[in-house]
Amino acid sequence: MKFELPGQLRGPECRKVIHEAVALRRLLEPWFLGLDSASAEKLSIVLRIDGSLGSFGPSGVENVECTHKHICCDLVIADHDWNSLNSASIRHVLCTYLLTTIEVCLARFEIEYDSNSLIALLSSTS
To answer: What region does 90 belong to: left with phi over 0, alpha with psi -120 to 50, or beta?
Structure first.
């Protein structure tokens, strides 16, 4: 299965978040390639990062759907005063939200995966 992690930002300070998100996407891509599913070929989690220029709404997973074997969802993350956080803190915030979002998406479409390996992978970075 392929994995994508595009994003939309609501402030220039959110660029720090995208830098960490790119690193996490690269880390997760090999893990996703190991998933075998007849129901889905790709998972795209669209990050919607709140910042100084506005909000996308309450934090959490929204709009989970699967069309033509492509699972897609929105992940809204509230403003965490990004400028005050270091890279490790930003990674921790992202990992927490990503773990929940990945689990929701895979469970919704009954895709089997090794939860322990996903947790270990994300825990190793935060």
So the answer is: alpha
